[in-house]
């Protein structure tokens, strides 16, 4: 199976930990290279049509039920070579899924239960095989767990399921074994490519789920290194120099931004997955984490540390971040408009999070049609925002303030747009609400394209003034 190194970062926030009572499940989708074009689409519901979904990266073929819900996806354009990777979205039952956060088990456990790389379920098809058929976040864990039991797993994956009440984080780590933990309502969680879940309480079936026989598997193969307790990370995870420079610093910095009063070490293998704060977490706080690159520390690649310090740790936001998304479910909005997929194409440090209602049945053409190469007409949202990222970073010291002002204005406009648009679906039937949200979304996307292209024109003109190919004639000559 083809498996490029994937390196995502996840932030999860329970409903009592947020400022508005929403659940938020967020992740950066980072790929092997800086250019991996993708699009945002809506797959229609279907009925009385049993079918299969096939992986492009191995020989997995999953049988699907005859009835499936409408759902969003963010697939790759070159799916034949790169796989489909639908990544994230909501289905029509207001259940969100984000897949996957790549995780890596240690060789001790994999020797006892190897990954089924030949035909096991993988990230290529995991959303298409699961999201159209689930009615709640917990149901998502159950359903995917049955698929892993039937087909095995081809890789280590962390999978997020969310609805208006719950967020579940599921880690599939060997060919057949997994653990899932419910994020407490009053807490948040941060992780980046390491196995995250720690102590497991097998008596607490409200907050933990697991694969059949996992306790017996660990005991019979003598896999638990701890004298006391059952720490999933210690048993199944890795703890090496790669983790300390690639993975644990991102978890450290996420906690630093959301919990600034807590002092932690970026090299600590036992950084907590779940924490609580003394303040409420807002949407822009989650955006700040996913768009971060160690600002305010010596480790910032765009900062003023030494060359060694600036390249010591892998940042959260990268040029390899193809999309950054936040799955938000707001209880203060009508049910038909309560799910919002906030999508940032491009490098999230420089580009805005644009909202798409989970129950809109149509996506603007600039998002659903992406060419393989940059079109200078900038009709594609993916290429427009990636071009903006490149322009801002090319003269970061000179352009960052203008980009920051653009992002602040965009947030104000987009937050207002959601708050004004969503209440208008009250009293509409499902079809009317979907059509209305789609129509209004097209207008919003057009406004964001107008603003973005205006900024790009402004920055390009400014950049022409910064060329080093200049000469000032001495007035005395």
TrEMBL record:
GO terms for molecular function: dipeptidase activity. It holds the Pfam family Peptidase_C69. The keyword Disulfide bond does not apply. It is an enzyme of class 3 (hydrolase). It catalyses: an L-aminoacyl-L-amino acid + H2O = 2 an L-alpha-amino acid. Its EC number is 3.4.-.-. InterPro entries: C69_dipept_A-like, Peptidase_C69. The keyword Protease applies. Keywords: Dipeptidase, Hydrolase, Protease. Belongs to the peptidase C69 family. This is Dipeptidase. It comes from Limosilactobacillus pontis.
């Amino acid at each position: 199976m083809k498996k490029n190194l994937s390196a995502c970062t996840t932030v999860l926030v329970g409903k009592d930990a947020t400022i508005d009572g929403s659940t938020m499940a967020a992740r950066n989708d980072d790929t092997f290279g800086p250019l991996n074009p993708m699009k945002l689409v809506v797959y229609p519901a279907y009925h009385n049509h049993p079918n299969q979904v096939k992986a492009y990266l191995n020989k997995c073929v999953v049988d699907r039920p005859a009835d499936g819900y409408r759902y969003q996806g963010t697939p790759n354009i070159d799916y034949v070579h790169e796989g489909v990777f639908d990544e994230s979205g909501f289905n029509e039952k207001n259940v969100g899924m984000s897949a996957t956060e790549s995780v890596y088990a240690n060789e001790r456990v994999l020797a006892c239960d190897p990954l089924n790389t030949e035909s096991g379920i993988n990230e290529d098809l995991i959303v298409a095989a699961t999201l159209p058929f689930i009615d709640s976040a917990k149901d998502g864990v159950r359903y995917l767990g049955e698929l892993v039991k039937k087909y095995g797993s081809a890789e280590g994956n962390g999978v997020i399921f969310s609805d208006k009440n719950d967020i579940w984080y599921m880690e599939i780590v060997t060919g057949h074994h997994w653990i899932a933990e419910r994020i407490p309502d009053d807490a948040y969680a941060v992780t980046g490519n390491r196995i995250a879940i720690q102590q497991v309480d097998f008596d607490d079936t409200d907050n933990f789920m697991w694969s059949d026989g996992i306790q017996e598997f660990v005991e019979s193969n003598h896999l638990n290194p701890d004298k006391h307790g059952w720490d999933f990370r210690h048993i199944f995870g890795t703890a090496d120099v790669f983790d300390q420079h690639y993975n644990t610093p991102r978890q450290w910095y996420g906690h630093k931004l959301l919990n600034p009063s807590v002092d932690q070490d970026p090299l600590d293998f036992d950084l907590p997955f779940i924490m609580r704060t003394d303040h409420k977490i807002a949407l822009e706080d989650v955006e700040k984490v996913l768009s971060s690159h160690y600002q305010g520390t010596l480790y910032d690649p765009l900062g003023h540390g030494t060359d060694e310090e600036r390249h010591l740790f892998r940042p959260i936001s990268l040029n390899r971040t193809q999309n950054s998304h936040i799955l938000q479910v707001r209880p203060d909005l009508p049910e038909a408009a309560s799910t919002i997929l906030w999508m940032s194409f491009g490098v999230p440090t420089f580009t805005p999070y644009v909202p798409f209602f989970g129950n809109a049945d149509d996506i603007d053409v600039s998002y659903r049609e992406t060419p393989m190469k940059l079109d200078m007409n900038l009709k594609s949202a993916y290429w427009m925002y990636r071009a903006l990222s490149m322009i801002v970073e090319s003269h970061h010291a000179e352009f960052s303030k203008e980009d920051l002002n653009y992002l602040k204005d965009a947030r104000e406009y987009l937050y207002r747009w959601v708050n004004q648009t969503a209440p208008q679906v009250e009293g509409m039937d499902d079809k009317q609400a979907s059509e209305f949200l789609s129509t209004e979304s097209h207008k919003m996307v057009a406004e964001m394209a107008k603003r973005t292209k205006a900024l790009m024109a402004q920055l390009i003109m400014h950049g022409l003034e910064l060329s080093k190919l200049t000469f000032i004639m001495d007035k005395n000559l």
